[in-house]
Design a protein that fits this description.
membrane; Cytochrome; about 60% helix; 12 helices; metal-binding; Cyt_P450_E_grp-I; 3 domains; about 5% strand; 3-stranded antiparallel beta sheet; mainly alpha
Length: about 260
């Protein structure tokens, strides 16, 4: 498995931790083409870019440099170096890439995954841990996880002799579990919201050339991804508002019934 580190600042920080490198020197890497940089080396592997990373790491070592348009990136492909990045010097690499998809979906990076490390992020993480992910609460979702896992296994078994996109199915599994756990009780718009979450996840996980050339603002318009994500976000807001209103009505009716 390879770890992708965005921006040359990450590169400088990492290199300063290892002897034999100066801060002004980049790790070794394959040749680059004008304007596009290194993507052609990944294209050679077709639909398996991780194979390309493996092959490049064998040639250039566990720390290598690739250029993707305007983005300078360091690829880490060894457990020892990965530990340095993810554990020993994790705060030095706690930045988040500025991508179009999370900017739109998370209202300018306001979620715990994409927000920059700092006071707000710490508070969000604390809330997630104390209110959502404590052991008793997670255990209460076990029946949902078991049901969705059973559905996934049945689908795989029914497709025994056909190719399946397991990445897509695992994303759908995750979104279904999270969606059902969030809503708890079944509601008429729940299926619509989960479907929208799947659509947003699929769209956000796609490639967009504008992310590789952040200085060329017009690419955000011509690529079409921004418009698509904005429409999906609007639909999800409407569906979520319906669910919230439905939940509030149930609570009001329950209080009214108990008061009689």
């Amino acid at each position: 498995m390879s770890i992708y580190l965005d921006t040359s600042s990450c590169c400088d920080t990492l290199l300063s931790k290892f002897k034999g490198f100066r801060r002004t020197k980049l790790p070794p890497g394959p040749c680059k083409l004008p304007l596009i940089g290194s993507p052609h080396h990944l294209a050679e592997a077709g639909s398996a870019p991780h194979h390309a990373f493996r092959n490049l790491a064998r040639k250039y070592g566990p720390i290598m440099h690739l250029q993707f348009g305007e983005i300078s990136a360091v690829i880490v492909s060894a457990p020892r170096v990965a530990k340095e990045v993810l554990k020993t010097h994790d705060l030095a690499f706690a930045l988040r890439p500025k991508l179009i998809s999370p900017e739109i979906i998370t209202y300018n990076y306001l979620d715990v995954y994409f927000f920059l490390y700092g006071g707000y992020w710490k508070q969000m993480r604390k809330i997630c841990t104390s209110e959502l992910l404590f052991a008793k609460n997670v255990q209460s979702f076990s029946s949902i996880r078991e049901e969705e896992a059973s559905n996934l296994i049945e689908f795989i078994q029914s497709s025994l002799f056909s190719p399946i996109n397991l990445t897509v199915k695992l994303f759908a599994f995750k979104n279904n579990v999270v969606g059902r756990a969030a809503f708890r009780d079944r509601c008429k718009d729940q299926a619509e919201v989960i479907l929208l979450i799947n659509d947003l996840t699929a769209s956000a996980g796609g490639f967009d050339v504008a992310d590789l050339y952040p200085s060329i603002k017009i690419l955000r318009v011509v690529s079409g991804l921004k418009s698509k994500l904005m429409k999906l976000r609007q639909k999800s807001i409407k569906a979520l508002n319906k669910i919230i209103n439905e939940h509030q009505e149930r609570l009001a009716n329950k209080e009214k019934f108990n008061g009689q």
